[in-house]
UniProtKB/TrEMBL annotation:
<feature type="coiled-coil region">
    <location>
        <begin position="21"/>
        <end position="48"/>
    </location>
</feature>
<comment type="similarity">
    <text>Belongs to the small heat shock protein (HSP20) family.</text>
</comment>
<protein>
    <submittedName>
        <fullName>Hsp20/alpha crystallin family</fullName>
    </submittedName>
</protein>
<keyword id="KW-0175">Coiled coil</keyword>
<feature type="region of interest" description="Disordered">
    <location>
        <begin position="75"/>
        <end position="97"/>
    </location>
</feature>
<dbReference type="InterPro" id="IPR031107">
    <property type="entry name" value="Small_HSP"/>
</dbReference>
<feature type="domain" description="SHSP">
    <location>
        <begin position="1"/>
        <end position="90"/>
    </location>
</feature>
<feature type="compositionally biased region" description="Basic and acidic residues">
    <location>
        <begin position="75"/>
        <end position="88"/>
    </location>
</feature>
<dbReference type="InterPro" id="IPR008978">
    <property type="entry name" value="HSP20-like_chaperone"/>
</dbReference>
<dbReference type="InterPro" id="IPR002068">
    <property type="entry name" value="A-crystallin/Hsp20_dom"/>
</dbReference>
<keyword id="KW-0346">Stress response</keyword>
<dbReference type="Pfam" id="PF00011">
    <property type="entry name" value="HSP20"/>
</dbReference>
Length: 97
């Protein structure tokens, strides 16, 4: 995201497991520069990325450094397997009663 500043970028998670990156790139005011052609687009932008069901929505982090936005999405830990119930086996076949 070259040309963008930290305050111009917003990272959000929507309820339906969608990561939304949005913001606005503004043209630097340089009165002496005469552009023939600009390589970067200016203005508002938005991108949506679907997240997997096992994404931990509470542990998403974003870092913006030197024009690179890094978003880390951790997985939820796998569910623990259910423990088998142990039934005691009694010796002797007659029931009391």
């Amino acid at each position: 995201m070259p040309g963008a500043k930290t305050g111009e970028i917003k990272v959000q998670v929507e309820d339906d497991h969608t990561l939304v990156v949005s913001g606005e790139r503004r043209r630097a005011e340089d009165k002496e520069a005469k552009y023939q052609r600009m390589e970067r687009r200016m203005g508002k932008f938005m991108r949506r990325f679907p997240l997997p069901e096992d994404a931990n929505l509470e542990a998403i982090t974003a870092c913006f450094e030197e024009g690179v936005l890094t978003v880390r999405v951790e997985k939820k830990p796998p569910p623990e397997p259910k423990k088998a119930k142990t039934i005691e086996v009694k010796v002797g076949g007659s029931s009391e009663g």
